[in-house]
Amino acid sequence: MDTYGNEPKGSSREQEPKPERHGASPALMYSVVVPFYNEEAVVETLVNKLRQVMDRIGRPYELVLVNDGSRDRTGEILDAVARKDERVVYIELNRNFGQTTALQAGFDHATGDVIIAMDGDLQHDPEEIPLFIQKIDEGYDVASGWRVRREDNLLMRQIPSRVANWLLAKASGVNVHDFGTTFKAYRREVLRDVRLYGDMHRFVPAVCARLGARICEVPIKNVPRQSGKSNYGIGRTFRVALDIITMRFITGYLTRPLHFFGKWGVIAGLVGMVILGYGFVRKVIQWNSFHLMQEHGPLMAVGFMLVITATLFVATGLIGELLMRIYFEATRARTYAVRRMVRSGDKYKRR
Fold first, then answer.
1. How far is the C-alpha of 76 from the C-alpha of 67, rounded, in Å?
2. Tens digits of per-residue pLDDT, 8-44?
3. How far apart are CA 243 and CA 327, in angstroms?
4. CATH fold of the domain at 10-253
């Protein structure tokens, strides 16, 4: 059962026909996307484990390995691995763009029908990949990892993570316990209209849910780092807080920004008009004896500010509406997702 209480239809589910992809093998089933940043100590170990696991699965696959501007020998090792194995695709970015951009680069170059994303520091166990594949085979569109038992520092990592995940679940309406982990599996079609920016990789399930994707969670182990240090800390709390606001807007108001800004604009405008109306009526009734700015100067200032704020909210919403239309027209991104289509024949001739 998925996070919305819906039962998947399993392998018998009819899917939207996929267009042929240029340069892609039609039989390629899986793409494992792994971003690396200064992980020279574990690169070869991880790649070997991935090969062993994927070979046991016995279906065609590729490893898409992204070097996100590493300053050590990570890129050199990945380059050597790719030259020896035709199933390995090596992507080297010009500089360190961040995990989200590295993942997007991997997604853009992945050609498998199922895309599996994971970290390159061996904190994700490749042996658990079959668990994700099993959920995708059952009919889910997204299988998201859930670190049930974390080995991180309780005060600095676990508690902030639990708070952030709770807020993300409430803001997005997607009942996922662990948004932060990269370990996820996706059907290729659900990523077709998803573009990642900033630190938004953790919100992919929420974005996919907006288009009706079926999401489930897979309990995974949280393996302690074998070398190096984490690139994340308590300092990213403020970025996560801002990302929550962004994610709430994207999942709830992306195609109707005026509904978001206009609502607050109307509230501010009504309160401001009531305040100014009160001052106007008092002044008319007691024209000579009532000094409005002396008696209620601060209150009138608040009223004027609320009216101005309301105007700015509405203007921002209108600009957002225009930008939204430009975005969807320019990128041809879809505001909907088709699960299946049935056509018994051309009943009417098209001119």
1. 10
2. 554 444 444 444 444 444 579 999 999 999 999 999 9
3. 20
4. Spore Coat Polysaccharide Biosynthesis Protein SpsA; Chain A (3.90.550)
